[in-house]
Amino acid sequence: MTNLFSAFIVLVAFAATANAIMWKLEPNTHKCLKEELHQNVPVTGEYEVSEVPGQKVDYVVRDSKGHVLAQKDDIVKGKFSFVTETYDSYEICFISRVPERQRGMSHEVSLNTKHGVEAKNYEGIGEAAKLKPIEVELRRLEDLSNDIVQDFSIMRKREEEMRDTNESTNTRVLYFSVFSMFCLLGLATWQVLYLRRYFKAKKLIE
Predict the structure, then answer these.
(1) Low-confidence ranges of the chain (pLDDT < 70)
(2) Residues 6+ apart with CB under 8 A from 179
(3) 67 three-class SS
(4) What digits encode the pLDDT tens for the residues 50-61?
(5) What backbone torsions phi and psi does residue 121 show, to the nearest 5 degrees?
(6) Residue 54 resides in a domain
(7) pLDDT tens, residue by residue, 154-166
(8) Tell me, what CATH number does 87's domain have?
(9) Of 51, 58, 87, 188, which has the most beta carbons under 10 Å away?
């Protein structure tokens, strides 16, 4: 029982997804961070960009089809949030813009993103529903458990799809091998008969 509880705690720790990253953005370049997310997943982010006189940094959030989910020009510090519509790959891009005839300098960019349970404001939910702190925590754990179950369900579905693909591939390879074997046997038989007729025509064999 203790081992099961420990395993559940580990899963909860992994499911609580919060990513913080910092990097240098070179002048007149862009950097994108990409991640695959499920459907109806809330995503929040906080960013901070070091100021460089005369230079600007923009950000844009897009899905794989190019739909813009969030965007802002000339940023310094702020937040963004959106909810995923479908299971897709989403990217957050930061673009540096330097005017002509100006020597560019790199920006320091920090980004902290949260999605899923960690992106929800449970304090606000608790105040709106007049819940006690322990009830708020129980609701958070319930949502976290549901996310874990959903992740396992998606992983199982992917495993089934991969297994079906492997079985289909194995069947096709087997059929192709049998077909190749018959082709080789037919070619070998034809070659033997042809050589036999040839040698008989040259009277090399009876």
Answers:
(1) 1-19, 206
(2) none
(3) coil
(4) 998 989 999 999
(5) -95, 90
(6) yes
(7) 889 889 999 999 9
(8) 2.60.120.380
(9) 58
